[in-house]
Amino acid sequence: MLLLASVLARRPLAGVLWNSTTGRGTAWRDDKRSRLYYDVANLTLAAIFTPTRKSETNPVSPTPTPFTYRNAYAHRRGRQTAGFRR
């Protein structure tokens, strides 16, 4: 939300952080092209880091069986082994 709000406020957080780190100040805010690039970078970061809701129609896959050589070769014997049984 913070990344989207900073784009709407015309002060992209990516530009603020980058230019404060490199010591270039706030001159980039007056340049339309720079602000556009920082808007795009900010929206890309927002798309990457925005959490998604889990779909209720797509069930979570079951916990996989722990790896053992016995479990790894069970398909060759036509059966599955359970858990940590030996």
Structure commentary:
The protein has 86 residues and is mostly helical. The protein has a domain at 2-49. 50% of the residues lie in helices and 0% in strands. The protein has helices at residues 2-8, 13-22, 32-49, 69-72, 74-77. The longest helix has 18 residues, at 32-49. The protein is elongated, with a radius of gyration of 25 Å. Helix 1 (2-8) packs antiparallel against helix 3.
Oligomer: single chain
Given helix and strand content, the structural type is mainly alpha
Succession of helices and strands: HHHHH
Q: What proportion of the residues form beta strands (DSSP E)?
A: under 5%
Spatial separation of the terminal alpha carbons: 50 Å
The tally of helices reads 5
Per the principal axes of the C-alpha atoms, what is the gross shape? elongated
Quantity of strands, as a count: 0
Radius of gyration: 25 Å
Q: What percent of residues adopt helix (DSSP H or I)?
A: 40-55%
